[in-house]
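Figure S4 source data
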Amino acid sequence: MEAKNFIYDRNGKRVRVTIPEKVELPDEFNPVLAFQGMSTSLISNFANGTYDVQFYLRRELASRGYDINGRFIGFRAAAKEHKV
């Protein structure tokens, strides 16, 4: 069952939202757990823009040979696509 809740948009208007049921994901696919092993300092630097998180994610995909959609395209093609 989904819960019905209300939030307020930036103009102060009440908006109804539907919150999906909590779905259990395996740990390796759960974004909530993705940063647990990372230092608070590093997370802060990503959050405040000191480090470009998108750059490092693209760099990691390239180092694995994957395109932005997670399809293996080879290391050289991935490096070219991600511009790293």
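Figure S5 source data
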Amino acid sequence: MTRAYVALGANLGDRERTLRAAVDALAAEDGIADADEIVVYCGSGVSACVNLLALAVAGRPDAKLYPGSWSDWCARGLPVERG
């Protein structure tokens, strides 16, 4: 199965859904902590809340949630990246 994600986004992949794992994963990604704007998403906006909380714990309380997430993005026919 080919992975796809929101164009202009970074795909952090499937991670263990715990706060500690999310904080560790975000800290390990080059450039994520220093990005001007961070918007997290998942399939429908629910699971991404773990990443949103992890970002706040990691010092980025300004990160945002895309509530419609992947479902909304695809329904609108917006561009996606594959790979």
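Residues 19-28 form the longest helix (10 residues). The chain has one domain: 4-82.
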